[in-house]
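Exercise 7. Given the components listed, write out the predicted structure of the assembled complex. Treat all entries as one system.
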Amino acid sequence: MAFSPLSNAATSATAKPTLSFSSSLYPWPRRFQSSAPLPRRRRFVSIQSKIREIFMPALSSTMTEGKIVSWVKSEGDVLSKGESVVVVESDKADMDVETFYDGILAAIVVPEGETAPVGAPIGLLAETEDEIAEAKAKAAAKSGSASAPPSPTKTEADTTFDTPAVTATPAPAIPQPPRATPGSSKPSGKVVATPFAKKLAKQHKVDINKLVGTGPYGRVTPEDVEAAAGIKPSKPAVPAAQPAPVAAAAAPSKPAGAAPLPPPLPGSTVVPFTTMQAAVSKNMMESLTVPTFRVGYPVLTDALDTLYEKVKPKGVTMTALLAKAAAMALAQHPVVNATCKDGKSFTYNSSINIAVAVAINGGLITPVLQDADKLDLYLLSQKWKELVEKARSKQLQPHEYNSGTFTLSNLGMFGVDRFDAILPPGQGAIMAVGASKPTVVADADGFFSIKSKMLVSPSTSTQNTWCFFRIHLCHNHILSCRYCWVCHSSLISIKL
Amino acid sequence: MQSSLSLSFSPGSSSAAPAPRSRVPPDFLHIAAPQTLASLRFYGIRREVLGFSSLRRFGCHFSRRVHVVSHERPPRRLSASASDNGSASKSFDYDLVIIGAGVGGHGAALHAVEKGLKTAIIEGDVVGGTCVNRGCVPSKALLAVSGRMRELQNDHHLKALGLQVDAAGYDRKGVADHANNLATKIRNNLTNSMKSLGVDILTGVGTILGPQKVKYGKDNVVTARDIIVATGSVPFVPKGIQVDGKLSALKASILIHKIEVSIILLLETIIHRDYFTKYLFFSPLNGFFHYFITCLCLEKPTGKTVITSDHALKLEFIPDWIAIVGSGYIGLEFSDVYTALGSEVTFVEALDQLMPGFDPEISKLAQRVLINPRNIDYHTGVFASKITPAKDGKPVTIELIDAKTKEPKDTLEVDAALIATGRAPFTQGLGLENINVVTQHGFIPVDECMRVVDANGNLVPHLYCIGDANGKMMLAHAASAQGISVVEQVTGNDHVLNHLSIPAACFTHPEISMVGLTEPQAREKAQKEGFEVRIAKTSFKANTKALAENEGEGLAKLIYRPDNGEILGVHILGLHAADLIHEASNAIALGTRIQDIKYAVHAHPTLSEVIDELFKSAKVHSEVSSPASEPVAV
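Answer.
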């Protein structure tokens, strides 16, 4: 398979147009002819800037475009003549494409999985390391128009194409698998990285030697690389690694499989979910696997309102107040702060982290007030302000939105007086908070009065429900001072 | 010649195989002879025989070795009795005794019964041998799981088919049970098939005492006109590697037996009662006693981190990261299983190239399809010089040295290591010293007809060796074919097995299969013998059925002689390759030429059309060598 994918697409980003050079076949005579009168320095430049293009070869007479199956070599790899560089899929078969020149694969213009027309540059080959940067710049310019066939209008140099030579016999040479990388990739001592981590690091251009492994024995795991590359795991590398009961895992898929969706109405447009929307959707679907239990309870908020009026000028928001109240209640009833992950046991969380649902542009996120029971109301408010700002600018770190142990969802400010919140996976409970509004209430003596009343509806997983009831029934004093959560807002006032 | 296919260790490492047995002086030859007659009464099997003296047979040995002809073979009896299960000739208990009830022994036994021989099979471990209990069979169960997992995990593929499947999961124990249940089922099938045909299954370790005489178990001796050794192989573990898995079942049972006997002897001496032995052995106490000692001897199954295929097939745990030493069939299949179940894999290969036994073009494609897209990396050209099991909170460490310079290269830290460096013949306790046979690299030397050759280069009369123990081609079906060939010989038919017609398969996803020569082998042969070699190739991408399955990845390659149309080799990588190879292997076995087989009709649309097209695309100079049979008017 001796395709000549390389042309001497001589390039001279630095050289002037007059300084034409190239065709590696006859470089010297030409250069001497053309550049003899030129100063010496320039000639030096022309030698330096020899970057060859790797073209999509024509692998069959009917082939018009080819798909890059895989790059056998990666950027920065040193190639020697005759080595396989890239695997190209034509309309007939997959073929290995070999290089006809020694050099360094400076840039990949067309990545794996993409197609390019025959003759289009798919990669750049630099002769020396010094040219890599230049080639990269060139590649960046090219990748914009990668799909365009090589323009014959290239003026920078007298480009010479080697006609891709196709020989009938397959490559007789024994294939040379790329040398195993690990040996060379960690010269600075013991950085142990798993095969998938190495692969990801190469893909995302992460220097594995600079990572601190969090895996067993301090090894670098795929997750570490993904974190370093700033990407969320696209999907768990191994969805099946845990011996999870198959039935549970398969459950959410059933509705999708059972009821085929009706075809979209004519004229409708389909807009795919953004990543965040997809994540929200996934979480919501997952919540269906947890049986939940909802209770609603009206609470009188006159005391709370008074308190709020008092602290509002100091920058305390209702959210902070509610979070603080919830946190203090949770401190007394750790079982509600616990999670039930396996259906057999509670995991008691050591800290009380109140997640508060916030709508942001195009989605929903739950910034977390960590250790909300320990921080005072003012610090909490300040923290909350920061978190909201970060959330709006999408700068929340993962631990700032996924470490919640209890969630608060407040729609009161929109005048919503009651709603059910959906329990996020992995948490023990969520509390929906409605609007507080003046209501006529009758007291024990039959006297009517107008009090501010607010409906709170916690949803909790049924695993926690039993305990929930226990709290209610056994702790009459809590019941008597209204609902336990808000009862604690009075505690705040005491503290203040 | 083909044995290199199944042995992934390099020639260098093969010298590290179990040391050859030292040559035994001739005086030892008949040392066990006096015990023999007494054993007959344990049997009580005396049959009156309607035997005829057969003509002295000049079998396949006749023209092959000069020294063979000079070697005097005793007259042979052909049992021509009418009885179905055969009856032994007057002077022997059996016509044929097979040591080892693996796939090879089983195949030989079934064919022997068909040929009217009175047959017994001796098994020291469990019926079915490596293939059924610790090899091909349970691994196919695991690979069936891994294949489905791959399908369910391949979102892209599923989407292309219009399927929606959410996260696939598995239960390790369920998978392990599937493998174990399959092995049990096949083992029972094997046992029943032999029992129903009247093959005597004798339990105990078989030892050759002398010509035509075998001891099994403690002290039962049987005589047989012909003996086939089919003791198989065990995983080969190179020096410096500590395997912390369990003792193999066979080794354990031998050890247990020795301990039991010594305890009983001890008790006898203490109590001075000579009936103690009998009493204890037949009492219900024995069961408890045996269990107790077994528990003592077997290591606890926890914390095994350096294992061979024997243990890996039990799937006791699935490590996050496993190093597989050796990238031959076994290593490749396990990499398929482990990566499908979520492990990451690091290959350690002594040769410069992964999958050294395969045709280079196939191994190149296999690397692209089976290695590169998966969570696998590899180190080639290195030996695993030392492997230390995980202990005291430390991971498994593997020290790598350069295969050529022997200089230290790297140290791997992984969660587990699977030693898949090939298999070593198992001939322990076989009593080869009694017949002056010396193993070569552990293998029992045989000629082309599987007749055992002794230390002096002479044939041992009436002794054959088939399967992994002779190392000709370490494949279950090869052993069976060799066994059938031997039975043909002992019943008077000249038969030589063409090893080049034996297909081999690797059950990865997609599968790899091959028969005959690889391209370099064919070119070498062509150069020596002065003929032309040509290659034809077809892709699965052009096959309707493969495309319907959305499994177009694959290649079929035909190596042939354009002058006479002889098929030299066929190599396939692709969907169901292991099932597709037989058209080619049968053609090679029957000597069918391309110009004939290309007119055979294949159902459309089937994967077999890949092979059809392969034959059709070959360019053969000569005309149709034998016209198709008479046309039939319809």
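Discussion: Chain A touches chain B through 46 residues (CB under 8 Å). The first helix of chain A runs from residue 27 to 35.
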